[in-house]
């Protein structure tokens, strides 16, 4: 959704389906697992479930979201013929686990 304020500020509301977030999270976890060392396993060979327990979940979700955002944001700008002068000010509107996220 695109909203243009009288002062020229453009507000985009983007929705990210949970399935996309979950897939991106899995990719972020696999990337971290490749370099994470866990006792009893060769580097990068520990089960993903064990790796996930040792990592900061919020950081993994941030990495996953960043990856998705960097794909979707330029596409949205092109689709709506927008050429912003400043970088986006990102504010989460809804970001619960298991539900679609909105910014």
Describe the protein's architecture and organization.
By secondary structure, the chain is mainly alpha-helical. The chain has a domain at 17-86: 2-Layer Sandwich (Alpha-Beta Plaits), CATH 3.30.70.1050. The chain is 45% helix and 10% strand. The protein is built from three helices and four strands; from the N terminus they run βββαααβ. It has helices at residues 18-33, 48-54, 57-79, and strands spanning 2-4, 10-12, 15-16, 101-102. A two-stranded antiparallel sheet has the order 1-2. β1 (2-4) and β2 (10-12) form a beta hairpin. α1 packs across α3 (57-79). It is elongated, with a radius of gyration of 17 Å. The model has no long low-confidence stretch (mean pLDDT 89).
How would you concisely characterize the structure shown here?
The chain is mainly alpha-helical. It has 3 helices and 4 strands.
Element order: H for helix, E for strand: EEEHHHE
Range of helix content: 40-55%
Residue fraction in strands: 5-15%
Tell me the name of the CATH homologous superfamily of the domain at 17-86. Trigger factor ribosome-binding domain
Rg result: 17 Å
Number of strands: 4
Q: From the helix content, strand content and strand pairing, which structural class follows?
A: mainly alpha
Overall geometry comes to elongated
Count up the helices: 3
Uncertain residue segments: none
First CA to last CA: what distance?
Answer: 11 Å
Core attributes:
103 residues, mainly alpha, Alpha-Beta Plaits, two-stranded antiparallel ribbon, two-stranded antiparallel sheet, 3 helices, 10% strand
